[in-house]
Amino acid sequence: QVSCDFNDTRSDYCEMAGAIRIRGSTSEVFVMTPRRGTTAGDVVGANATWIAANATSWKMQPYTRKGEARIMNGITAVTVRLADADEAPACEVMHDVPAVVYSNGGYCGNYYHDFNDNIIPLFITTRHLGGEVQLLVKQKQAWWFGKYGEIVGGLTRHEALDLDGDARVHCYRRAFVGLRSHKDLSIDPRRAPNNVSMVDFKRFLMWRYALPREHAIRTDDEVVGGRRPRLLIITRRSRRRFMNLEDIVAAAEELGFEVTASDLMARMADASATVNAFDVMLAVHGSGLTNLVFLPMNAVVVQVVPLGRMEGLAMDEYGVPPRDMNMRYIQYNITAEESTLSELYPPGHPVFLDPGPIHKQSWSLVKDIYLGKQDVRLDMARFRPVLQKALDLLR
Q1: Rounded distance, CA 99 to CA 229, Å?
Q2: CATH class (in words) of the domain with range 219-393
Q3: Cα–Cα distance between 294 and 345 in angstroms, integer?
Q4: Which of 19, 56, 86, 155 is the most exposed place for a label (fewest CB within 10 A)?
Q5: Helix 245-255 crosses helix 380-393 at what angle (to 10 degrees)?
């Protein structure tokens, strides 16, 4: 049987059971049918707008950015074929675990997208299999599997195959094409196998990286423990930098924080251990906030949102996930006076007054102006209460 979901806005996904043969060199997945004449009409959940009623094959792009044509144009398609045994290539390698076919292309290499587009969807799709699954990877990036080896090793006990470079026909009794994806940097447990959640994902990361702290400090216990709450400020080397970092550090220390500023450009094991030692994270909107997955539960995430009508995007990407991981979240939206765009454009310019037409024109223009040209200089009279609120949330 084959069961597919082509209606999801984030990814196409198929599960299949029976006799399955996969040939990577031609990007084909053959599903043996019990009788000649089986068509896509027998596929449970198949969307007629994607698969004609008389089709015996269909193409899928196994990557989780389905709505982004520019990115999906670079994703190699996989063809699923319903076939009689004599129509499919003969088995060369037999496997007794399920296969997951997906792409390691797209935004691979962007830290946020590595987690959002690959790691969390892999966790959703495979965690219930308890490591007894094999990854068949299109557009496999060897360095990626090196960087995230601890995570991949917790999801599968088997070698991840480079499907593009393997001409053999691999045979399985169960397979998945595509990855499940629910929302930005998070999981909807109602839709996940075994109802796994982002708390489960956080605990999985703690296991894989041997992170010691499950819960952040409670400041009510500070006098007893003698430790101050720790604040991590994530710095950036290029745009969206804190231009008055020293003022921010001084204000935080006055309130009682122990403060560290870092760009976290380190090996995953080191970066995860560093983040796990803190109770509050502060950063301007950007991929560095992805490190929030390593914070202990009950920690506080403070996101500074630059100008440009970015509030909704910022909330979706880095505001919802902390709450789904039993953490607290504060969003600080800057004013025009706190943006270095005020040094590039005159007061009253549409860049400040009406970003809407810029968004409508193109996302690349939005990125160029609001993400690519903007730093922040926080108004400490306005921002200091935010630091105080973060401290209060640790009680």
Answers
A1: 45
A2: alpha beta
A3: 38
A4: 86
A5: 40
